[in-house]
Request: fold
Amino acid sequence: MRLSRSLIPTIKETPAEAQIVSHRLMLRAGLIRQQSSGIYAWLPAGLRVLHNIANIVRAEQTRAGAQEILMPTIQSADLWRESGRYDAYGPEMLRIRDRHDREMLYGPTNEEMLTAIMRDSVQSYRDLPQMLYQIQWKFRDEVRPRFGVLRGREFYMKDGYSFDLDYASAVSSYRRMMLSYMRIFRDMGVRAIPMRADTGPIGGDLSHEFHILAPTGESGVFYDKAFETIDLGNDTYSYENQADLDAFFDHMTSLYAATDEKHDTVAWSNIPEADRREGRGIEIGQIFYFGTKYSEKMGFAVVGPDGAKIHPEMGSYGIGVSRLTGAIIEASHDDAGIIWPDAVAPFHAAILNLRQGDATTDALCEQAYAGLGDAALYDDRPARAGEKFADADLMGHPWQIIIGPRGAANGMVELKRRRTGERAELSLEDTLAKVRG
Amino acid sequence: MRLSRSLIPTIKETPAEAQIVSHRLMLRAGLIRQQSSGIYAWLPAGLRVLHNIANIVRAEQTRAGAQEILMPTIQSADLWRESGRYDAYGPEMLRIRDRHDREMLYGPTNEEMLTAIMRDSVQSYRDLPQMLYQIQWKFRDEVRPRFGVLRGREFYMKDGYSFDLDYASAVSSYRRMMLSYMRIFRDMGVRAIPMRADTGPIGGDLSHEFHILAPTGESGVFYDKAFETIDLGNDTYSYENQADLDAFFDHMTSLYAATDEKHDTVAWSNIPEADRREGRGIEIGQIFYFGTKYSEKMGFAVVGPDGAKIHPEMGSYGIGVSRLTGAIIEASHDDAGIIWPDAVAPFHAAILNLRQGDATTDALCEQAYAGLGDAALYDDRPARAGEKFADADLMGHPWQIIIGPRGAANGMVELKRRRTGERAELSLEDTLAKVRG
Reply:
């Protein structure tokens, strides 16, 4: 994109309403704009990050055998009465009456709806197991929304659901999702740690939260340094191999990891001091196994091989997609701005034209832009060099291709890596090869 | 995907609640399930169609210079009071009160919100023109939702907005969108005809509706046969060339096209009889130019080159993305089921295993599936051949690769083209080459 023709309204001043760094940087870099308390519009650069994150989730969920669906945002209150959660949910549920005075709600999660869909669609044990997920907007009417997209009211979430015939198969689904989640976060360029968690309002027997490490994280976390070198390769663990899934799960859960709320100082003291790591974390996902809680309450059963009814065992699996945009920034920024991991960056590179209107400089910039296309943001504004440097650092593109009249006369550009600050003088050809990686 | 492990619940019986063919076929082919009146969940095959349509829209809107953004579904009532539409909109607007008793609504369209975003983000004439669009869920609380996704309450829509400094530039944006829309519908494999339209509740001076031809369409349409052979090629009309945009617009609007409501029998009688075409149509998009209506009411102005305030000229541009899934089926089906155009089909091909469990047949099917991957739906169910034939015709995959034990013994398969019914005996290699196209 050409910056002169784009809606990327960067801001120099620190917005007064933003208390934390990711919120400040998302506003300053022109990624989002608040529309109501806890409700945001995503401008072009912000939406590109959101799409990148969603597509990483999709790719790895597909590999893990999950099918994508999409459920509506507005649900019927009657559906939630079947599970007993309509009255139980409290004021965070946004309750609505339509023109016929029917009670509706904006879905905060979808266990009920998908159980009802399965109940209508699936009759035989032959149709299970199934693993389904969606990436859809949800609403939770937080009493005091804050921290930007980290705790918004309308938020974008991946929620997945597994349906299995028995406990062993459900545990296998749970373990498959744990592996898939670890690979998803790895593919985004962040380090996540799974921690045993309470099951909360969804209920159930087994749950893990995933936290990414960020100095500004909401929780203190304690973990074994072995998490820093986990091998998640396809050769090490296959989704199709039960022994692999079990070995992976056993390895994950054998290592110490806890938030400060669940920290066990005795167990911690048994870990060699050299292996202990402390930090802060932000929760970005959670997985639950909860058995037949919903299938029994909602009367979802399939006919088994012997003709007997089986209530499927269920689990649910969430990733905060919009939350991750903020969490990644909390984990990866400096005083000058965002430092996007390559995999989620809105643009892979910025092209900075230091002398707009100089024919040689313009020509080399156009050549660079033609070579990178949509992966690049071309800063073609009639602005000072200092402003372009500051905005590129703020927006956090992994690469900056800096083109001024002196270098351009010799066909040379300066290539800067945002994360390390490393700079090199290179020909345009070598630059493009390096940026395309 | 393997059908045995997929949630594609086909139905043999005609669903009683569905009055029109696309609604019946979408239910029967397992694409959607109703959750409340006029509110649908999209199952895996249906969602693939929705994504295909959305991605065609994205690709061509990007070429036309539009930037994608994403606005929230829940809006503040105060925003709509600024334009005067909050009270004017009527009972189709879903009005909501949050836990703090603030008046909110589920957006039926986004002129107000984007005008407010631009007002906060853009100060100078240098920042215009801009063209922005989103693909987002909307809600209109229809009093009697019907016809499935053709007239749902929660629906998926592409809505775009242009902001220009003067009338000439706004007209250019309008014409660019008309060209982009015609290319979008062409790329989906349907024929669309632009017709001069009333501006309705959005207001303004100029509007066109796009109808696709379908024997079951809601409106009668009358048009010049020249629409059947419109050249939309990039070499004929460039988005960057004003003379091209003008020539395209003049050509489109010089040809007769009208729904029965606006039919002009005198003008019609002046068209040579051989050039007259009559049919039925379904509205799938509409474009509006409405000048400074919103920018004035909402106080959005930029500073012009001479320091004077300029209220930008606006237009808005809609495509019914979820509606199109139904409209395309209305335009393309037969007694046996859906006939998907290649570009939007959920799967490019189905592989029908006629003897599940026969080693040779299974092996050849697996080979075909490995060769096509995610583009194919492999019917590996332990079902009768007749059921597999019927379901493949119902689901409407462009190609069927039919593999039985006799052919498999010689490495041969039968390839059927759904649209024409043509069949051929081919080697697997030739089949894959043909299906990959």
Chain B touches chain A through 58 residues (CB under 8 Å). Chain B has a mean pLDDT of 96. Chain B has two domains: 8-338, 349-436.
